[in-house]
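Exercise 7.
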Amino acid sequence: MKVQYHRTQRVIAGAVTLALASTLAISTSAASADALSESEGTTVAEVPSQDAAEFISEIVLADAATLPIEPGSESNLGVTVPISLEEPISVSTDRGTLNMAIPAADGAAASVSATGDVIVASENDGADLIVQELDTSSLSFEAAATRTLITIDSWDVDPLFTFSPEVPPGGSITLDEETGGVIVLDADGNASSVLSSPWAFDAEGTEVPTWYEVEGGNVYQYVDHIGRQYTYPVVADPVWVIPVLLFVGRIVLKEVVASTMAAAAAKAISGIGTVAKYRSWTDANKRHNMIIYTKKNPGTRCDVHHTLPQKFSTYFAGRGFTGSDSIHHPKYLVWWEVSDHRSKALAVNTMWGAWIKDHPTASKSAILIERAAVMRKYPPRC
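Solution. The predicted structure, written as tokens, is:
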């Protein structure tokens, strides 16, 4: 069934190299442990969203071909993409049915492209979702998989995207600090599923900082495209895997990285295991760590700015920004031209102070949304 899609999507006029995606891969048969061993001057063109989807689909560096989707019908691999994406995507396996809600806009009309991709507006205004089923025959184990391409088309798009994977009764979700991935555990502590290390790039192939936050039953992917100038659309690709057998989550993560990742993802996670190059997450080490993290050293021309201000470090620590998620971690730092930074520092702190006074017990996701608002009002440039 095809439904009319009314929005238009802005895409860069020219070659786009990547697309932002969340991929859900569900293992459907037994597998052995060995097998599981605001950019200024940017030119944009208004094109129909349908055409944009097909254009993006052709240039994505994917590791599997796509299969056409018929919304509302279960595919041969057990994947059902609902007619209304306000409802979750589901995958049927021998162990039952997995559901995952994606960040589709309430009441948004969807359409099916000529290639069988489902297109719908995201709840993050200015972003669109392109849902695909993947041909997983090239993987080392039989699996079903869906990819949710998210295209962020401008600097104004909110950077926090919400995915709600199903958690088994009595289970939990935990963030794996070594890989940056997420592991969903069942009631017995076995890995029910994993969300692999996230990556993000802009249209020119520049890496964009991205990471997960876990709150309650939700996984939030924060795509930090407002921290500096990028060429849009900005894109990323986590992979969601549900094994049939019960394995240690880290083993599943390694298989996802090795077998189901696009070339861009491999590049993005290449730094895993080299964390030793970083020093401890402290204010004294911020410049050293930022040079490694951003792969640039602007020298004395730019300061290192805390996007979660040090003045309120006690508050942020109390809200969960500690350890590897400290405000001194380079993902919360940006380069900022010295004179501009120092002329606006008081205004930034004042804005944060007023917000914190009104939100003494804010969640991490709420704080990250406010972080984006402050950075839009006072954009750091270097």
